[in-house]
Amino acid sequence: MLDGWVCAFLLVLSWSVEVIDASAGDADPRYRGCITQCQETGCIGQRCFPNCKFSSDGEFIDRPWYMQQEPLYLQWKKWDCQGDCRYYCMLDREKERESHNLGPVKYHGKWPFRRIYGMQEPASVAFSALNLAMHFHGWVSFFILIHYKLPLKDGKKAYYEYAGLWHMYGLLSLNSWFWSAVFHSRDVDLTEKLDYSSAVVLLGYSLILAILRTFSIRDEATRVMVAAPLIAFVTTHVMYINFYLLDYGWNMIVCVVMAVAQLSMWAVWAGVSNHPSRWKLWLVVIAGGLAMLLEIYDFPPHQGLFDAHALWHATTIPLTYIWWSFIRDDAEFRTSNLLKKAK
């Protein structure tokens, strides 16, 4: 539930950034003039960029970072000519605005961030990595609980009927947060599609898992009947946005519908069930809603690092711990009930 809700809002936020063709910063004539000069000469003042290369006839030659010959770990810290021109023109323009007591503005839909080791949004990268680490901790602790602490059927199979589903959820969550960190590190077409695709897959799978758990579907045939149409839809959608058209508006609708559906299921289930850890579900829902205020109250990054979106990433770290705590509690609760029935 938590990751589906998080990923949905990330996609909505990304969509809102993409549809803005001209923010206040990149509409500034001085900024545009700086970009034009940089792309024509390869320099901004005394600062020149080796990635801005020109042929003997003066034509601009540039290739994206992933088409260069250097090893990937070296390319990752470098930017192409357009990226460097935009970044340093933005820095110079922001210094001018600060000297006139003017606040920062957005450029190409994003606040002016300060790069660290070539990372575009270093705070969001760090918090995404921490979310990934928290999911890894939660998944490993769940694995240990299921296979080493709780009793097993014939010493092999877990009593908890949803163990395999949660294992897959853990792997998909790790994949999604990994690409989130990569995307915040370097926003290009390839990383964008990988981030969007992994988020959509996680959303679709989380919806399937929410249906199976909240409706207590344990029969394999019924599970297949529920999962098959959703898997087909998610697969088709991922292929559509990757190989036909990355329609941000349609992608937003798909993700929001899946996120709201599973959030509603978990919330209603928490209200009507007698689960001893249902309060953890409510805590995740309420705390997550309060954390959304950070996104509503959008503010520029402090010291070029910590903006509202980065801080919102930070709030999901403890919520992830609580979410995996609920999953472990659910495994213990179901196992205990099944053992009592078996006696």
From TrEMBL:
Q: Which residues cross the membrane?
A: 125-146, 158-182, 194-212, 224-243, 249-269, 281-297, 309-327
Keywords attached to this Swiss-Prot or TrEMBL record, sorted alphabetically, are: Golgi apparatus, GPI-anchor biosynthesis, Membrane, Signal, Transmembrane, Transmembrane helix
Q: Which GO terms describe its molecular function?
A: hydrolase activity, acting on ester bonds
Q: Name one GO cellular component term.
A: endoplasmic reticulum membrane
Write down the membrane topology. Answer: Multi-pass membrane protein
Q: Where in the cell is it found?
A: Endomembrane system; Golgi apparatus membrane
InterPro entries, per the entry = Per1-like
* One Pfam family linked to the record: Per1
**According to the UniProt entry, where is the signal peptide?**
1-22
Q: Which domain of life is it from?
A: Eukaryota
| One BP term from GO | GPI anchor biosynthetic process
Say which family it is in: Belongs to the PGAP3 family.
State the function annotated in the UniProt record.
Answer: Involved in the lipid remodeling steps of GPI-anchor maturation.
Instruction: Spell out the protein name for this chain.
Output: Post-GPI attachment to proteins factor 3
Q: Which organism is it from?
A: Glycine soja (Wild soybean)
